[in-house]
Amino acid sequence: MAIHDEIGPWSEVKLDIVREYAAAYSRILSAQRGLHHYYIDAFAGAGQHVSRTTGEFIAGSPVNALLVTPPFEGYHFIDIKAIKVAELEGLAGERDDVHVYHGDCNEILHKHVFPLVQYEDYRRGLCLLDPYGLHLKWEVIQTAGSMRSLDVFLNFPMMDINRNVLWTNPEGVDQQQAERMTGFWGDETWRNAAYVREKGLFGELKTKTRGNYFVVDAFRSRLRDVAGFAHVPKPMPMRIPQGAVVYYLFFASQKPVAQKIVRDIFKKYGG
After folding, report:
1. Which of 54, 122, 129, 227 shows its CA 20 to 30 Å from the CA of 139?
2. How buried is residue 82: exposed, middle or buried, by Cβ count under 10 Å (0-12/13-18/19+)?
3. Where are the alpha helices (DSSP H) in 77-168?
4. Which residue has the higher pLDDT, 141 or 54?
5. Where are the beta strands (DSSP E) in 140-233?
6. For 232, phi and psi rounded to 5 degrees?
7. Which long-range contacts (CB under 8 A, 24 or more apart) does 96-102 make?
């Protein structure tokens, strides 16, 4: 098993976006007396990656976060693969402000990390939820919104969804794949966003997929109306060089200034 993931240029852009916002976030929070701020990476990987373009090592989000100045007060890195956790532990060394967890982030965030970043304790956090596919549970997202203490970057895995769930014939979709989508979305209302029934030439009803825009816009509404994030700017589509969307990068926060900063960063990178 390769320790370091090979990533495309779209993921390099994502890393730059998160790094720039993390620097602005830490600068602003560090200036507010009495507040404590933390960095959380739920799918941290090994800490660095291999560029598909150049073949060279590039810093992943954990390394970028550790280099932010002024620094966060604490760092929480999670990965389900032991070999990557070992790499993260090597990066952390003897630092007592870095905490590395081995296991499923859906459980670890609830049990061990989110309780440390409570609003009433004057604690705040920047949380990166960057799954490769539909491996994140809606309960994590909804909890993050209800806490009022977290800014979140979220990977909405459009390619996985299109390949495995949003078929023209929804009856042909494997039940386990549909259940993965429901787990990520939180309920089965994703079907209303994804499909529409239209009359054919002979009056028969046909099911038609509605396209990425409708699904993504509906999920954005869920982040606001169900999870409770006050500010959710339009997500940035992350595309392969041929133009197809691999995933959408969402941002969600309770603060209008956070939304403004992210909109400016998205615009800078073509969003």
Report:
1. 122
2. exposed
3. 82-92, 105-108, 138-147, 158-164
4. 141
5. 150-156, 195-199, 205-209
6. -135, 90
7. 97/71, 97/72, 97/73, 98/66, 98/74, 99/74, 99/75, 100/44, 101/76, 101/77, 102/78
- pTM listed for this prediction: 0.93
* Residue found by looking up tokens 């494997």 in the block: 174
The count of residues in the chain is 271
Question: With contact defined as beta carbons under 8 Å apart, do 212 and 113 qualify?
Answer: no
Buried-state track 65-75, b at ≥16 Cβ within 10 A, e below 16: bbebeeebbbb
CATH number of 6-158+227-268: 3.40.50.150
Q: What is the mean pLDDT of the chain?
A: 92
Q: Give the model's pLDDT for residue 204.
A: 44
**Among 191, 201, 140, CA closest to 166:** 191
User: Tokens 């054919």 belong to which residue?
Assistant: 200
Number of Cβ within a 10 Å radius of residue 203: 6
Is residue 124 within 8 Å of 38, Cβ to Cβ? yes
Six token digits for residue 18: 């998160």
Closest CA to 45 of 138, 132, 160: 132
Task: Give the tokens for residue 247.
Answer: 């995933």
DSSP helix/strand/coil, 58: strand
Q: Name the pairing type of β-strands 245-252 and 150-156.
A: antiparallel
d(CA 157, CA 168): 18
CB proximity list for 98: less than 8 A, separation 6 or greater: 66, 74, 75, 77, 91, 92
